[in-house]
Amino acid sequence: MRHFYRSHAYRHGLLALALALLLPLLAVAQTKEPYRLSGGNYTERYDAIAAWAADFASGQGAAPYQAATPSPVLPSQNKVFSSGTGSGVQKGSESIVLLATGSTDGQNAAAFDLLLDFSGTRAGILSLDWASVSNSTGNRKATFSIQANTGADGTFEELAGTTVEITNNDPTNGALTSIALPSAFDGKADARLRFFLITSSGGTTGSRPKMSLDNLVITSTPTEGEPGTTDPGTTAPAVALSKTSLPDFGQVEVGAVSAGQSFTVSGENLSGDITITPAAGFEIRVGDNAFACCAITLGPEEGSLASTTVEVRFAPGAAEAFTGSIEVSGGGDEAQAVAVTGTGIAALYPATLTSATVTEITTSSAVAGGTIASDGGSEVTARGVVWSTEVNPTTADSKTADGTGSGAFTSTISGLMHSTVYYVRAYATNAVGTVYGQERTFTTAAVQLAAEPTTAPEIAISEVTGASLLLTLSGGDGAKRLVLARQGAAVDASPADGTAYAANATFRQGQEVGTGNFVVYNGTGTEVEVTGLRGASEYHFAVFAYNDNDTEFAQNYLTTAVGRASATTPEAAGFVAFEENFNYAAGELLTDNGWAAHSGGSTNAIAVASEGLSYEGYPSSGIGNSASFTASGQDVNRSFEAIGPGTPVYASFLVNVATASSGGDYFLHLGPSSLGTTFRNRVYVRASSEGKVQFGISGSGSEQAYTTTEYNVNTTYLLVTKYVFDETGTTATLYVNPAGTEPAAGQAELAEGADKSPSDIGTIALRQGSGSPVLTIDGIRVATDYSLLLGVEACQAPATPTVAAQGMELTVTNPAEGTVSYQWYLNGTAIEGATGISYTATEAGSYSVIALAGECSSEASAAQEVTVTGIQDKLLKKGVAVYPVPATDRLRIQAGETGQGTATIRLYDLLGRQVLTRQARTSGELDIVLEVRSLRRGTYVLVVETPQGFITRKVMLQ
């Protein structure tokens, strides 16, 4: 933008002479000098602000500006110039910008001052354009105003009508027009205007908005009879434009119009109307009037034209480039112009095409095509035909791609089904989009089925193992045979004539026919080994004879006579599939000792550490060395004999974690025989608190379950995982420091759907991910049986005891066969010496018992509640209510006639362990709520002792 200094001709001469003398000094620094209104109205468009120096020290037009000083505290952010999110005064794009920052409302303000000299003049009005500018994120607010130094001792007072509130990230703009300047400015040589932005209330978070100012105009009139020393008493007209050019309007089709752009025009001391004339190919308007290609006239009021927005749009009448200017003239000022450009382009239309008649129809193919008569004004970039068995096919269906351009083309359609109705149409794509020709319909030729066999083949089963068996096929008069297999029930589906089926000898991997029937063989052979079976499972097989004349879709199956057989696999023997004790030299890489890198190359390659880890009772404890993870990098894997669906896969290892990230990452996982990216049974670790970690488990990584218990860093732990997978889904379980017998539940568990179930498990991998922990790992084992994994001999647990109570005498009523002992418990604590088949209670509480056979133990008996002489043994019944049943978060207990005193409430699990206790005062009635949300879901025994008796109930939590 530029300054406008308006006066008589002789004044221009004096000004030019003064500038010539001062120019060398201005290049270094400028003395702060008020702008003298006696020389004409002040107009600033900030078009040279980019060259202004800090603190307004130099630059064309910077002389009358000055950094603001606090008065008395605000403004507090007055740096000239700041940038970005820095508070103070900033340079905009041909504008000046204010930014006040801070989260506290009213605490900070940014400002700058404009120095004015009204000697010999009366103060007139002020006008400017403003716009809020978004600043980072948030919705906090700021308030702008203009102040004048008209208060006592030159203090600043706010000008009426100048307050504007703005909100961050809510772009708004507007204008302050014809703001009356204070009469105290009349003749004032040291007038000062302060442009002030303060943090204000409103909004909840984030940053404050910026305030951009532009097109500033300040007017005055000469004091009657008192012209200034350099002013003969008149003021020249001044017309101000906000822009001298508009951005290029780009390419617009002939007959269409572009989006609008705008500029503003304003003026003071005008002697007549302002005329705005558009360039050829452009239209203009003011306000809500219609766009027009003719001139617009704006009439000033009392010589002033308030800032008026002129909208411009490009409406080309020809396909050519347009360059011109929107002329602004009249009002007594020199003519000015706003440059505009744009390019008209020829209108584009969809291509015009027709679909060819379909010919050369066979059982599986046909010939179609089309003709593109017109490209619609833009190149055809794709063409062909689309087809479907549904009407109105599109390019989202099957299609051909037959080159580009206009004219006729031919398309060959293949892969069709015989005896099927198809719909086809041509398509063409140009700059406008894709269009289609008319729809054609055709039916593929029928296939003559081969002759149907008359005699069914027979099937024999041999070499049955826990995971496989051999089928021998014989007889029948068909050229080929198809075998279906089903688990648990007879094959209940038949193949369809004219259909080919994909076979796979691994059960469940072949094509499924009906539900649960899988194709395990299809061909001319006589034997097939079926694999992927499960131990102790019944399998049924059916063999169908068929002929197909070696012709597609000619299959003719004999389904009225079928060869059938079945067999039950023996229970598969458990086995140890893998063991790794890192019995290699310290410093060697795992990739030099049978492990293969599958990710991370050789970055931070996993090496053998100098000492192994130890854990008492673990069979792979203290053997050889160990492996160390130090940072993100190489991932390695080892394969082992594949374990199929339905067989649990147990993995155990020793781990000592030094550090872990709070976000966690997995460091060990299993995978199928062909690893790829099918990572299953992932084991995680994450930092939880100072010096503590938690371990976690995941099936496929989409979500994780972590232990609630925290574990110490730099401590060796035994981790065991159990991964169960089959066609119904998967379950991954994690145990930490488990006992020799498999626990009923793990410390963490996660189930996933059947879509996450792998074909088998045959790989174990060590991983150093982006959030890799620093740890040592050792003693890795993989097995199909928990006892084999931990080297513990499996045992047959005795039956769970049933207990009868006769007074204080407790007796097991179902003694187990063989050498069995017992252990009695009171409130979950073993009673020393109480190992017989019966026990006499000596105190009140919850009693249970387990049966022992060698190292094996039964489940605990149901708890028996016993009250002893000296304790009120009356069973309370009146007003007793325990609810809800089942309970989830809270359990409410109510009873009447409980007496005066203290009631004790206890909750026991079925092992007799006390898991919760409360005491409450009772004054004849009891009403208490127990918080039970933290307890495991299951069955518990509630015992309430009151001064007048007791209550006992079984309660269920779920």
From TrEMBL:
<dbReference type="InterPro" id="IPR003961">
    <property type="entry name" value="FN3_dom"/>
</dbReference>
<keyword id="KW-0732">Signal</keyword>
<dbReference type="InterPro" id="IPR013783">
    <property type="entry name" value="Ig-like_fold"/>
</dbReference>
<feature type="domain" description="Fibronectin type-III">
    <location>
        <begin position="349"/>
        <end position="447"/>
    </location>
</feature>
<feature type="signal peptide">
    <location>
        <begin position="1"/>
        <end position="29"/>
    </location>
</feature>
<dbReference type="Pfam" id="PF18962">
    <property type="entry name" value="Por_Secre_tail"/>
</dbReference>
<protein>
    <recommendedName>
        <fullName>Fibronectin type-III domain-containing protein</fullName>
    </recommendedName>
</protein>
<dbReference type="InterPro" id="IPR036116">
    <property type="entry name" value="FN3_sf"/>
</dbReference>
<dbReference type="InterPro" id="IPR026444">
    <property type="entry name" value="Secre_tail"/>
</dbReference>
